[in-house]
Amino acid sequence: MRIFDPHIHMTSRTTDDYERMAAAGITAIVEPAFWLGQPRSSVGSFTDYFDSLVGWEPFRASQFGVRHHATIALNPKEANDPRCREVLALLPRYLEKDGVVAVGEVGYDSMTPEEDEVFAAQLALAIEHELPALVHTPHRDKARGTERTLAVVAESGIDPGRVVVDHLNEVTVGLVRDSGCWLAFSIYPDTKMSPPRMVKILQEYGLERMLVNSAADWGRSDPLLTRTTADAMLAAGFSEDDVDLVLWRNPVEFYGQSGRLDLSDVEAKEATFAGNSILRGGS
Ligand SMILES: [Zn+2]
Hints:
The protein is an alpha/beta fold and 283 residues long. It has helices spanning 15-23, 43-54, 56-62, 87-95, 113-128, 142-156, 173-177, 195-205, 225-235, 240-256, 264-274; strands at 3-5, 26-32, 67-72, 100-107, 133-136, 163-166, 182-186, 210-213. Helix 6 (142-156) links the parallel strand 5 and strand 6. Helix 4 (87-95) packs parallel to helix 5 (113-128) and helix 8 (195-205) crosses helix 9 (225-235).
């Protein structure tokens, strides 16, 4: 089984996690830029963080046979801090880097006017740099936040097929389904979404434009929950090809729109270890 986790914050995870992920078949990941828990007090802190997302972290992942790409943005929470606003001027430089496959995470935290402005500015950057966009939806007031998100996406003029709206649940899945955007779900141990609930959503809404991630970070989270969801899909009667579609081909198709997704290493390795049959219907 090959798994691509399209949203995981490896900066906050240990090498033990990389080892366990590789053993579970998670050999490709995308790490979106987000906040650091402790608020950043200057733009320099972003520069160092972005450099590590395109330099150090891909190197660390490669030692465990995991291919690492990143998305770069000013996150919604820190969009509210005037000390961080200058980051917007830094972004174009990072959005041209090889390992950067989208603008993200952008979107809403508390739905303030500052967040409106920064969200719209970053969707414009995605269009300008011909990159897809990864959009975070707020954890409070989720339905209203998702509706407002979709309105801003529509207004921006970006092709909805190049936008993924993340952290969805049973309340918001239908809204996004009709928008033409991609749908992503963060599987957590206690909150947000669980593997059994995810399987029910896939049964009801189908597999097209669906992404499943662990969003693992410093909070209570589990970097193996993509694999657990894949196993739950099989147990519920989905085929291995269905699992491959949701947990590999879908994220490859979405981030592949950047023209920068390079999976040659991991795909060559899989072909060597498992025979070419594993790549059937592949990217
Ligand atoms: Zn995240």
